[in-house]
Amino acid sequence: MATKLDMSQVLEDLENTSSLDELSEVAIRLRDRLQIENLIYHWVDGAGDQYGYTTYPDVWAERYRERNYHRIDPVILGCFQRFHPVDWKTLDWSGKVAKTFLTDALEHGVGNQGYSIPIRGPNGQFALFTVNHTCDDETWQKFIETHGRELILIAHYFNRKALEFESDRQPESSRGLSPREVDAMTLLALGYSRAQVAHSLSISEHTLRVYIESARAKLGAQNTTHAIATALSRGLIVV
């Protein structure tokens, strides 16, 4: 699997997409750069409607929808109760239903390792960004240690782009922060320095300060740390 990822190129590719087809192409290139078997974006809205993009075999994607597996999928159920990224090995696969589902998934080309990042909206929207592969636990752990933070940022960008192209899936009310403000606050929450954030977003530190102060004012926060905590608690950013 990949040991280094050019994040500037990945984020630029995502930023420059103008259709779902182009987003799918970016996802395939990202999967190949990471040298993993599958990459998945899966959205479930407040009414339970599903939408997404996956590099899983078509037969599994169709089987998953036909059998309404999202209602029993331990990944969906486990991640819905969490806010942080989830390694599939930490989920509960002990029940009979979960074991049957897992056996079916493995037989249809799903890898034995997975890492899913939950993404939430303010009106019951829920999405997952997932990477999936077949390998031993030690190899997978090294992969997550190397790319975990990058995957969180990619998930955020991927979700924002998917929503741009599916306007009817946008939250009914405003998220409060502009896309660039969300980008800045997400990177700060991940522990990036202001210089690193400015470099990642290809803006000056002066422009970054404008975004941060604007976000702080919108959130009614006393300082940047307070603004990050408020944005996290409201589900405006995910880390």
UniProtKB/TrEMBL annotation:
Biological-process GO terms, alphabetical: regulation of DNA-templated transcription
UniProt GO MF annotations: DNA binding
Organism encoding this protein: Ruegeria atlantica
UniProt cross-references to PANTHER family, sorted A to Z: DNA-BINDING TRANSCRIPTIONAL ACTIVATOR DEVR_DOSR
Protein name in UniProt: HTH-type quorum sensing-dependent transcriptional regulator VjbR
Gene assigned in the entry: vjbR_1
Keywords: DNA-binding, Transcription, Transcription regulation
Domain HTH luxR-type: 170-235
Pfam family, one: Autoind_bind
SMART domains according to UniProt: HTH_LUXR (SM00421)
